[in-house]
Amino acid sequence: MLPQAFTSAPSVDQSNFRFHCIGCGDFPTTAGQDFRCAHCGDLLEITFPRWKDTKPNAEELRSIWSARRLSSERIDLSRVDLSGVWRFRELLPGFSSGEATAGKSDPQVITLREGNTPLYELPQCARITGVPRLFAKHQGMNPTGSFKDTGMTVAATFARRAGFQWVACASTGNTSASMAAYAARGGLRSLVLVPEGKISWSKLSQALDYGAVTCQLRTDFDGCLRLLQELVVRAPVYQLNSINPFRLEGQKTLAIELLEQLNWHPPDHIIVPGGNLGNSSAIGKALLEMRDLGLISRLPKLSVIQAAGANALVRTIREADGKQLVSVRPETRATAIRIGNPASWKKAVHVLQATGGACEEVSEIEIAQAKAEIGAEGIGCEPASAVTLAGLKKLVMQKFVKPDESVVLVLTGNLLKDPDYTIDFHRGDLFKSDTSAEISLKPLRRPPIVLDATLDAVMRTLEQAEKA
Fold first, then answer.
1. Which residues contact 457 (CB under 8 A, 6 or more apart)?
2. Which of 129, 131, 196, 417 is buried most, with the most CB atoms less than 10 Å from its CB?
3. How do residues 378-423 score in pLDDT, each as one tens digit?
4. pTM of the model
5. d(Cα 188, Cα 280) in Å, to the nearest integer?
6. CATH number, domain containing residue 296
């Protein structure tokens, strides 16, 4: 027997939010296990109707959030204020107004102190692109090494509040790692469905270590997701993929934290990678909400960059004017965005239109080059994150991004998420059969040098490096 619908479970407070269908506009009181509208089958999102009548005071919110971040009481390790997600709980669903104001620790909240990620300047990449005010919001500094943690803390918390014992996801790697970690932290069981042979072993090892029941299926990500959709309507399992609107509510705090770090002065552009498109949708949702609440005075342009071999959103906009999804058979070494049938494409199209952003694709060589250039800054990222810098170069050439504008790249995953890619790049194995690629990328490669264990050998190597 399936658990009671979570929105009507005793421990879930739905007084401050409503579900809203992005297709027909319906406002259902509960959400099914597939998080789709019962009338038209489109995805649901979370809205806050009470803000129209009792809009939160922007200055008070800024003050509350700052106080939580700086509070001397943060030594109390059980406080939700330690989370860079729950610190912004006034804009999240499920807390009653009393809970949100009091700031008491909630034993039902599952947190690993996610969020609180750094905003880096990128001086070398700024010189390369000709955009002096260039920054990176590095979500790879989250507990499990990717942006997924910010959404998982909220979605996993709602799963536990609703009485579920099992959570599940289909994944290209990062989602499975994050879900398994939060399930373990919250005393839940987790089921992971991943495509066989199409996932970084580093990411898979995380899910295994966190105790997930891990199934490698002989299909791609889209096939894993289809099977998961069938599973959740037949078994008492709570779905934690990005079609779960609670995931996106957590992920939207990335944008809130970013604007706080910029002292509430919006950048001109925010550029994100595009895979299943939940993250770009979440960031865009936060930007629109912050503008409507008076937290920011204008909207940045939010742009989405995809790998050329997994360019469903690019083709959807170019070939169907954003009105109908153009699916593709995805092929890219940037495994985190190797998705050909993105679930949140309609939400992403809306965000692009609302913010005036662009959608662009980049080649495998452009991704590899950008990844090495970000690595040279001393921060690094996984391949999927590097599409942002590669895409920025194209947007500058197209004059969509101007040199005097400010740009924030969202880096979604840690360098150590896919070390094989990095090793193959620096050894020259990534494009072994492409001579022209190897020639163009050679200046960025730093292969390990095998030497005799003598001082002279090391000294000669040092002298050669000095001349390079």
1. 451
2. 417
3. 999 999 999 999 999 999 999 999 999 999 999 999 999 999 999 9
4. 0.92
5. 28
6. 3.40.50.1100
